Automatic annotation (TrEMBL):
InterPro entries: GATase_2_dom, GFAT, GFAT_N, GlmS/AgaS_SIS, GlmS/FrlB_SIS, Ntn_hydrolases_N, SIS_dom, SIS_dom_sf
Annotated protein name in UniProt: Glutamine--fructose-6-phosphate aminotransferase [isomerizing]
Described purpose of this protein according to its UniProt entry: Catalyzes the first step in hexosamine metabolism, converting fructose-6P into glucosamine-6P using glutamine as a nitrogen source.
Gene name, Swiss-Prot/TrEMBL: glmS
UniProt lineage: Bacteria, Candidatus Yanofskyibacteriota
Ranges where the SIS domain occurs: 288-427, 456-597
PROSITE patterns: GATASE_TYPE_2, SIS
Keywords carried by this UniProt record: Aminotransferase, Cytoplasm, Glutamine amidotransferase, Repeat, Transferase
């Protein structure tokens, strides 16, 4: 929900910290701040600004100090309004200890009352500010020891990076239920919320686990548990470049990520086709191969767009591998006192691998002994580390808040999973595997010309409400189309199954409420056509997404976006793309930044 960066090493111009922070802006962008220790002056300089990171950048212009250690922070407000006072880093009463925090301290009220009673002066309304004040109490010249004393007092979720003016040769980073890693350079270290912030300096990283603390200096680093016991940690290698996390000539990350889908789907599929048509080779699941033999049910758990990918997966696996599948939002599952079954595989889908609800559901299943699998994009993320086996998307960093390339990659992996489960029953799915091979080429052709979608957005840019309908494989795509539109263009949009229309939503239809109808030439075409007729009969404008060659639809719909014909279970990989682009153009025409939608953060690491 917030982005944090901490650096220690040879003193550097603070502009370098700002560059690292910019790559975390997707995590929150209502305000930004920094605290930097200037070794010449032996002072900490703290500067904060409300608004996007450029606002902080402007304030830092002309400040030419070289600093180490330093902290940078970009905020997505949870406690207290969007003000400079509430922005991190926060300090103790003496301006000695400085803390940047991602997460929520649940017991901050009690802690704050006690600290105020003892005479501590608070400047913000945040939960975080209790931390530097607690550290002030515990500090006896060694910031790492002080952190060890304070962490057990904190309830909630936190990734913290901490510096102290009176112990300026160390940077401390500590994690509990919020992402944090350490980038390892040559006698310089950078602690950050995700790898995109460190990749400009180093590709070697250590991912911290819950309850672990990294203590860094310009001489080296150690990872310790909270009692100070040293731990041996694996050093991972980031296998993508800084350019992958940049816009590559596009105006927005979202557009770049939509446009790169032909390549990202190809990357997802690489090495996953079996020798024979209709078979899948999923090396990531081999470690649980024996347990998977007895699987009688799959339960998919995820949030947002990843959940909607799960709904497509449910159709795919149950229809083609003939295994019953349930799909639930992880947030609801976890509070249901779920019954965990021995012969069920629990599949967690998450782009970031850090979504709090998905992670909590995963832990619940694990605790009860269920078999956990994952589809995750961010390598080394919490979900990736905690599932027993899983598949990486390999689509590179997804920066735009609206998930696009991760979604199509999730769909591709779910199609592989359907083949994988079918193969266990001696069944092959050649239509699916051979169809998948053609998807990147087809998508590349579809993405060559986006002008029709742009024009459509011009036609509807001023509407207030929009409905999306689809059936079977296209029902989750209707939900995803509506989610994309509402989250970045702020048009009120709802998705329904075509069958639900007459049970309530049809009351909304009139000439001011357009409906996007996903009406492909598939097994539910006739049914969708009836739904479209029902809408037209009530003067509702129709934008149809249809299969190339369907002339009938053009007679009824006001606008038609054609997509090439592919096997029905794979059509979601194509039909979602015009809806992603439509939402993107709508956001631009309505004057909004699609990469940074209001009130949203890329990775929802709190409940
Ligand atoms: O990182 P995750 O895939 O777990 O994220 C889940 C949702 O928060 C995410 O898909 C969200 O719905 C997107 N903003 C949708 O575009």
């Amino acid at each position: 929900m917030c982005g944090i960066v901490g650096y220690i090493g040879k003193p550097k111009p603070i502009a370098e910290g700002l560059e690292a922070l910019k790559r975390l802006e997707y995590r929150g962008y209502d305000s930004a701040g920094m605290a930097a220790y200037d070794p010449k002056e032996r002072e900490v300089m703290c500067i904060k600004a409300v608004g996007k990171i450029e606002k902080l950048e402007k304030k830092l212009k002309g400040i030419n100090i070289k600093a180490s250690p330093f902290l940078f922070y970009t905020r997505w407000a949870t406690h207290g309004g969007v003000t400079e006072q509430n922005c991190h880093p926060h300090s103790d009463c003496k301006g000695n200890i400085w803390v940047a925090h991602n997460g929520i301290i649940e017991n901050y009220q009690q802690l704050k009352e006690k600290l105020v009673g003892e005479g501590h002066k608070f400047l913000s309304e945040t939960d975080t500010e209790v931390i530097p004040h607690l550290l002030e109490h515990a500090f006896k010249g060694d910031i790492a020891k002080a952190v060890q004393k304070v962490v057990p007092l904190l309830r909630g979720a936190f990734a913290l990076v901490i510096i102290a003016k009176q112990d300026p040769t160390r940077l401390v980073a500590v994690r509990k239920s919020a992402p944090l890693l350490v980038g390892i350079g040559k006698r310089e270290y950078i602690a950050a919320s995700d790898p995109s912030a460190v990749v400009g300096m180093t590709k070697e990283v250590v991912y911290l686990d819950d309850g672990e603390m990294a203590v860094m200096s310009d001489k080296g680093y150690t990872v310790q548990d909270i009692n100070g016991n040293h731990l041996k940690k694996k050093v991972d290698f980031i296998d993508w470049n800084i350019e992958d996390a940049q816009k590559g000539g596009y105006e927005h990350f979202m557009l770049k990520e939509i446009m790169e889908q032909p390549e990202t789907i190809a990357d997802t599929m690489r090495g996953r086709f079996g020798k024979e048509a209709g078979t899948a080779k999923l090396g990531g699941l081999e470690v649980v191969g024996d347990r998977l033999k007895n699987i009688e049910r799959v339960h998919i758990l995820a949030m947002g767009t990843a959940y909607l990918a799960g709904l497509v997966g449910e159709q795919l696996i149950s229809e083609h591998a003939r295994i019953p599948v349930d799909t639930d939002p992880a947030s609801e599952f976890r509070y249901r006192k779920p019954i965990i079954e021995k012969n069920t595989a629990y599949l967690f889908i998450s782009q970031s691998g850090e979504t709090a609800d998905t992670l909590a559901a995963l832990r619940e299943v694990k605790q009860q002994g269920g078999l956990t699998l994952g589809i995750i994009n961010v390598v080394g993320s919490s979900v990736a580390r905690e599932v027993e086996a899983g598949l990486y998307n390999h689509v590179g960093p997804e920066i735009g808040v609206a998930s696009t390339k991760a979604f199509t990659s999730q769909l591709a992996l779910l199609a592989f999973l359907a083949a994988f489960f079918a193969n266990r029953k001696e069944k092959k799915l050649p239509e699916i595997t051979e169809g998948l091979k053609k998807i990147p080429g087809i998508l590349a052709r579809m993405l060559k010309d986006t002008r029709q979608i742009q024009k459509l957005a011009q036609k509807y840019a001023k509407i207030d409400n929009m409905l999306y309908i689809g059936r079977k494989y296209q029902y989750p795509i209707a939900l995803e189309g509506a989610l994309k539109l509402k989250e970045i263009s702020y048009v009120h949009a709802e998705g329904f199954s075509g069958g639900e229309l007459k049970h309530g939503p049809i009351a909304l239809i009139d000439e001011r409420v357009p409906t996007v109808a996903l009406c492909l030439s598939d097994s539910v075409y006739e049914k969708m056509m009836s739904n479209i007729q029902e809408i037209k009969a009530r003067n509702g404008p129709i934008i149809a997404v249809a299969t190339e060659g369907d002339k009938e639809i053009a007679k009824i719909a006001d606008d038609v976006l054609y997509i090439p014909r592919v096997p029905e279970p794979l059509a979601p990989l194509l039909s979602v793309v015009p809806l992603q682009l439509f939402a993107y153009f709508m956001a631009l025409l309505r004057g909004y930044d699609p990469d940074k939608p209001r009130n949203l953060a890329k990775s929802v690491t709190v409940e």
